[in-house]
């Protein structure tokens, strides 16, 4: 695991990683060995931002900790199943049949694979409440739409590349839509406001 550490002001360190797998491993390790004074851990596709309270954990000490933190074991890193988010889905997305055809499988097989996958939130972005979901056993790479939609309805369940996601609000988007949910992805009055936070496990089920 290579780590390039870049101070970001006086209260944060940006850690550059080689790929998303390294980001996930580092984020899990930091969570498992979290120190007093760590305010936030923000993973992205190739980086992890570590925010600190310098009065509790000086930036130099944070850098030393990040360099020395050992890889987390799967048992230590994985959130408890009780913390998993379960999202009910109506699988009737506009792109469901076409996506299954692109992948060379039936729509039933695509829905079954999506439901069976043990997803986790790799990082958040694009819009408040949007989580990029990954799964070690997900076998498909789903091409984005050639022309993005100008309006994707809130609650749309979608696939792109190796990721799954749920649109928290109406917005443009080029992911392929396979279903929809009534789950609230972002609530500014909640703590935390996002349902899908980095590291959280996610399961999809057929809506009743």
Automatic annotation (TrEMBL):
GO terms for molecular function: hydrolase activity. Keywords: ATP-binding, Hydrolase, Nucleotide-binding. Pfam families: CT_C_D. It comes from the Bacteria. Residues 3-196 form the Carboxyltransferase domain. This is Allophanate hydrolase subunit 1.
């Amino acid at each position: 695991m290579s780590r390039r550490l870049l101070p970001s002001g006086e209260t944060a360190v940006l850690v550059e990683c080689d790929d998303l797998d390294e980001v996930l491993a580092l984020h899990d390790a930091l969570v498992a060995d979290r120190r007093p004074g760590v305010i936030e851990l923000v993973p992205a596709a190739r980086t992890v931002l570590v925010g600190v309270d310098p009065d509790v954990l000086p930036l130099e000490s944070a850098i030393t900790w990040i360099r020395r933190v050992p890889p987390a074991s799967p048992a230590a890193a994985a959130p408890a199943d009780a913390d998993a988010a379960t999202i009910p889905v109506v699988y009737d997305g506009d792109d469901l049949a076409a996506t299954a055809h692109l992948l060379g499988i039936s729509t039933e097989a695509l829905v079954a694979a999506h439901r069976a996958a043990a997803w986790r939130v790799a990082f958040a972005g694009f819009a408040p409440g949007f989580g990029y979901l990954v799964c070690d056993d997900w076998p498909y790479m789903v091409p984005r739409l050639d022309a993005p939609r100008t309006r994707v309805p809130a609650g749309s369940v979608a696939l792109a590349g190796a990721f799954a996601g749920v649109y928290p609000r109406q917005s443009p988007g080029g992911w392929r839509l396979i279903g929809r949910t009534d789950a609230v992805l972002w609530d500014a009055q909640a703590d935390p406001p996002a349902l899908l936070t980095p590291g959280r496990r996610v399961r999809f089920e057929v809506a009743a």
